[in-house]
Design a protein that fits this description.
With about 550 residues, the protein is α/β, with parallel strands linked by helices. Among the domains are: about 180 residues, 3-Layer(aba) Sandwich (Rossmann fold); about 170 residues, Glycogen Phosphorylase B (Rossmann fold), CATH 3.40.50. It contains 22 helices and 13 strands. It has a 7-stranded parallel β-sheet with strand order 3-2-1-4-5-6-7, with helices on both faces. Strand 11, helix 13 and strand 12 form a beta-alpha-beta unit.
Length: about 550
């Protein structure tokens, strides 16, 4: 098969991917039916837990769907059963108080960083944060950001006694005091669907579509979908059932870059000869997944062979075993490091930024643009799979996009040999990102989001929830399974949710897992007998129970 021959490649993928998608959907459907069965028996906590398990299957092993009306109907039925009778809520006339809802936050990664930058930029409004299922310590900068905005402490729902039902009700209660709710939640986080099941009785719910290529919960409560690129918006309309008028584009907010070192000084600090041309990339390890036996290192080996004055520096991939043959050939000219909390030094040392493959990393491209680096990415897929490529506002037209590996290597060779070209392309990318993705220009996009949210009538989700999802097997679905499919073990997902069940069901599911031999030790088995909220108190080092 010729690299970049997308029609041939798609034809080769479809029989294999169709088999896997059908298998994945069958497992997904098994847990959907269990959730529906528990709901019919008024076992609400068990129904919610099985909705969560089903969504993990769909997120980790693509099922040919991007949302599930059946699952969201189970969750909205739960939420409406728990909704007291009362009048519709008056719609806000302006947005003064914003409730941000996250599943968890992290010290590393662009998602949490963007959230805090957003809150700081939107200083004229009060922002508060609820974490639905955070585990471990919360980064200090997150607490500082939200306490400065509203004076409110960050609330962690899973530190409260109870499970998903009780936590959803607490989220509903907190939201009453806010003008809008913005979801930054993980794909499998179902609490907002329960909490805001009856749209007329709650503040408008805005969904940040940050996981735009994955299955996620929320279309049935989505007053407005905030899409970070046009391919995400197209997919939200075509495959998530979100009406066109309830979609809006808003670029990723990227940090404004201030260079602290010259490129030469940064190279010296890293032990690199200042005359070496550094090709640099930064992303999470899964984005460098080996495809059909071809590693990220293999892709760049011919470039390193052709240009002895060049090196490849990857931050985030760690040390994959299958990169070892290329590493042995080029030694220190191929460096691959684990994730870094602050990778700025590596960006400052770089001459050329190369995007991750097989899945892009737009936030890293924007950061690289901020340092004035020329940007290069690979997109060898059909146009119907453009959700896996770069189509972000300021990056369009400012990234060199190769459609084959040979073309990609030619682009890198051209950049390695032409310093003036590197400078010209890097400057163009920097100016575009500063204009659209940095402050103050980004604020006009945010104000447009708030304005659209106020204009829209309340969401009526009845027609959406009357449909039944069916798997698709063409593009982008076959491509999705090929890139991301991984046979995620469902029993480990079941373990994650058993502590949120009522005691009798908790024990029954604990026994189911034990019989499958999934516990790695007696100590692990014992730990899973604890309710989730108590487990979090023990593991997160909290010393006293909530009042």
């Amino acid at each position: 098969m010729a690299l970049g021959d997308t029609m041939t490649e798609t034809a080769a993928l479809e029989p294999q991917s169709t088999t896997r998608i059908k298998r994945n959907f069958a497992e997904f459907d098994h847990y959907v039916q269990r959730a529906q069965g528990y709901l019919s028996q008024d076992e609400l906590a068990a129904a919610a837990a099985h909705c969560a398990i089903a969504s993990h299957v769909a997120t980790q092993n693509h099922c040919g769907i991007f949302w599930s009306p059946r699952l969201e109907k189970v969750l909205t039925d739960i939420g409406r059963q728990l909704q007291p009778a009362g009048p519709a809520r008056a719609r806000p006339r302006e947005v003064k108080r914003v409730l941000e809802v996250c599943t968890q936050v992290s010290a590393v990664g662009g998602h949490t960083k963007m959230l805090c930058q957003w809150v700081k930029a939107d200083a004229g409004r009060e922002h508060a944060l609820v974490l639905t299922q955070h585990r471990g310590p919360t980064p200090a900068f997150v607490h500082e950001t939200f306490e400065a905005s509203s004076g409110m402490r960050v609330e962690q729902l899973n530190h409260r006694p109870g499970g998903q039902i009780e936590w959803a009700m607490r989220l509903r209660e907190i939201a009453k005091d806010f003008d809008v709710v913005i979801l930054h939640t993980h794909c499998e986080d179902l609490l907002p669907v329960i909490a805001f099941a009856d749209a007329e009785k709650h503040p408008p719910v805005l969904v940040l579509n940050h996981a735009d290529h994955l299955f996620w919960y929320g279309p049935s409560v989505c007053h407005l979908s905030i899409n970070l690129r046009d391919a995400a918006q197209d997919l939200a309309i075509a495959r998530r059932g979100i009406a066109p008028e309830r979609n809006i584009l808003m670029p990723t907010l990227a940090e404004g870059i201030v260079r602290k070192r010259s490129r030469e000084d940064a190279k010296r600090e890293l032990g690199i000869d200042p005359d070496t041309i550094v090709m640099m990339s930064a992303a999470r390890r899964p984005k460098y997944r080996t495809m059909h036996g071809l590693t990220f290192a293999d892709i760049h080996a011919p470039v390193l062979e052709k240009h002895p004055n060049a090196m490849l520096l990857i931050v985030g991939a760690g040390e994959p075993e299958d990169w070892a043959p290329v590493k042995a050939r080029f030694g220190d000219r191929l460096r691959s490091l684990p994730e870094q909390p602050n990778p700025k030094l590596f960006f400052e040392a770089a001459d050329i930024y190369v995007d991750s493959y097989p899945f892009v990393s737009s936030t890293s491209l924007m950061e690289a643009a901020g340092f004035g680096l020329p940007l290069v990415t690979i997109f060898t897929y059909p146009e119907a799979s453009r959700i896996f490529g770069i189509n972000h506002v300021a990056l369009v037209g400012n990234v060199m996009q190769a459609t084959s590996f040979d073309q990609y290597r030619d682009m890198l060779s051209q950049l390695i040999g032409d310093a003036a070209l590197r400078e010209r392309l890097g400057s163009s990318a920097r100016e575009a990102v500063q204009r659209e993705h940095n402050l103050p220009g980004w604020m006009r996009w945010l104000e447009a989001v708030y304005a659209r949210a106020l204009e829209l009538p309340p969401l009526d989700n009845r027609a959406m929830l009357a449909t039944i999802e069916q798997p698709a097997f063409g593009e982008p679905d076959c491509r999705h399974e090929d890139i991301f499919g991984g046979n995620w073990p469902t029993v480990r997902v079941l373990m994650s949710y058993m502590g949120m069940l009522p005691p009798h069901q908790h024990l029954a599911h604990w026994n189911e897992v034990r019989q499958q031999g999934a516990f790695e030790s007696a100590g692990e088995a014992a730990s899973y007998l604890l309710p989730e909220w108590l487990k979090r108190y023990v593991k997160d080092g909290l010393l006293k129970l909530p009042e």
